[in-house]
C-alpha cells in the first residue's frame, strides 16, 4: 500500500540564501501492506510528523520516493496531490480540523462536494456515514456545539465518506479523554477488520500503538522497524 | 466541485460578514453609478447633437454640387448611372409663387421636381397620388393652413402672439384640398417688375398632399409642379422679365441630391461621386467628424468615471484579502482533504465576482433611476428658477445599451482584477501552517 524508499528531508530556516539547514529525516525506508495498521512512534521532534506530512503530500520530498497504491507521488504537483488525497486518502487529525462555520453534516459532506457528487447521493451517503459513527441526531450541530469525542467522530466520518483505502492519522486520540480514546481505537480496529482499511498512525500513546499490527520508531530522523513497545518506551 | 456548490459555499461565506460585504457592494454600486452617470452626460450631448443634425436631413441623402456652375441634366444622368445610387432628385426654383382658391390666397415655395425620382427617394403622400398630367400638382402637408382669406395689412396689430395665431387659424382654408383646382398666378416674384392689366393664371389641380413631417416643428407648405408646367411658366414669366429667360439657374438644377438604398452605402457612393469631380455633402460625413470629437469626449468622461470604480475596487481588494486571511484555516482544511488550488482560487474569484455583480447591477439600476429623474426634473427646475424652457428633446443624461455594456465590462473587469490577487493568495495558504493554527 505505502512504499517509502530512501526518503530524506531537511527544513530550511532563515532568509533565502542564508538558510540554516536542519535535517529531519535520513534515508527512511518504510513499507506498509494493505490492511495493516502501522503505528509510527517516536519522541517529540524525532521527525514522525514530518514523515506523515511527506506521505500526505503537505510537504514535498527532496530525496527519495513515496509510492502509494503503486503510484509514485514524488514528482506530483500540488493539484495532483490534492486530487490524489481526495481519491485515495482519509485524514484524522489530533485537533479534528473541522470547519467551524459548517454543521457536522456539511463537514462530513465536504469531500463529496469537492468530488462533485450529486446532491441526492451526497445526502444519502452523508446521513449513512453519520449514522455509522452514531451522530445522526447531531447532524445540524456545529463543531463548537459538540464534545471532543463527537468532533473526532465527525472527523472520522469525513475521512471515511469517500471510502479511501488508506487513512493517515496524526495523534488521533491526542485531544480525547480515555473513554473516547477507547471508543475511537475500537472503531479503528473495527474499520480495519471489517473493511480492510489500512491505517498509518503517528502517536506517542501506548494505548494507540497497542492496536497496531506493527510499530516503527523514529529516532532523530532515522527509522527503526519492529521494535517492541517497551523498548520504545525505554 | 460543481458550480452550484461553489455558489452555495460563497453565499454562506458572504453571509458571515454581511455588513462588510454590503459596504463593499455599496462602494462598487456608487462607483459604477458614478461612471455611468458621468459618461451619460457625454452620451446625451452627443445624441442631442446627432439628433439635431439628422432632423434636417435624411441619413441616406448626399447633396451634390459642381465646383463651378449649376448641375445640368447631363450631370443628373451621370449620377444616376453610379453604382449604389437609388435615386437622384433634382429641383428647380420657380420665380412665381402665388396660388389661390376662391377668396383664399397664399405665397408658397413652388418647386419643379422630377416626381418619379422624388417617389423613389422616399417622398410619401398623405392623400392622393403623384401627378400624371402637366397641370397636376402636389402640395405640402401644411399648405391648407397657409391658404388664407385676404385681410387688411393692420389686421393683426395690437394682438398678442397667441391671439394673432388664433386669428390666422380662423382665416385658414378649412376644407379638403384634394382634387381641388387652384389658380396659379403667373407673375414674377421680382418686385421691380410691374405688370399692367390682369395677371395671367393657369389652373392647377391638387392630386396629392404630402405626408406630415416627422418633426413637430417642421412646416411644409411647398408646392411641387411638373417639369412641363415649369417650362410653360418660365416661358410666360420670361416675357414679363427678360432676365428670367436668360437666367442660368432657371434652366439648370439648383438642388440635386443622390439617395442610396441604405445609410451603409453612403460612404462608398460619396467616394464614387467625388471621383467624378463633384462636391458632396452628406450627414454621414458631418457625423463622422462630429463623432470623432464626441468619442474623445466620452472616452475622457469614462476614464474619469473609471477612477471611481478603481477606488471602489480597493474596497473589494481589502474585503477579499481579509476574507482570505480569516478563512485561511478553512482553506487549509479544504486543501488537506483534497481541494485543488484551482478550486480554492475559483471560490474566491466567484466571491469577488458576486460582489462586483451586485455592485454593477445596483449601480446600473441607480444610474438609470438617477438619469430618468434628472431628465424629468431638470426642465422643471430650469422653468421654475431660470424662467426659460429647455429646447425640445433636450436631455442631460442618456444611457444607451452600449454605455451600460462598457460600464459593466469596466466594473466587472476591475472587480475581477482586484479579487485576483487575494484569490491567488488563497491558493498559496500553507496547509501545515493553517492546520497548526488552533493546536
Automatic annotation (TrEMBL), chain A:
Name by which UniProt lists this protein: ABC transporter ATP-binding protein
Annotated InterPro entries: AAA+_ATPase, ABC_transporter-like_ATP-bd, ABC_transporter-like_CS, ABC_transpr_LolD-like, MacB-like_ATP-bd, P-loop_NTPase
Species of origin: Fictibacillus arsenicus
Gene Ontology MF, one: ATP binding
Residues in ABC transporter domain copies: 2-234
Keyword Membrane: no
Pfam family, one: ABC_tran
Keywords assigned by UniProt, alphabetized: ATP-binding, Nucleotide-binding, Transport
GO cellular component, one term: membrane protein complex
Record bears the keyword Glycosyltransferase: no
From TrEMBL, chain B:
Transmembrane parts of this sequence: 21-45, 292-317, 355-378, 398-417
GO molecular function, one term: transmembrane transporter activity
Domain ABC3 transporter permease C-terminal: 302-428
Cellular component terms (Gene Ontology): plasma membrane
Membrane topology: Multi-pass membrane protein
Keywords: Cell membrane, Membrane, Transmembrane, Transmembrane helix
Ranges for domain MacB-like periplasmic core: 23-275
Pfam families membership: FtsX, MacB_PCD
Keyword Transmembrane helix belongs to the record: yes
Subcellular localization(s) per the UniProt record: Cell membrane
Family, as annotated: Belongs to the ABC-4 integral membrane protein family.
Protein name, per record: Metabolite permease
Organism listed in the record: Fictibacillus arsenicus
Taxonomic placement: Bacteria, Bacillati, Bacillota, Bacilli, Bacillales
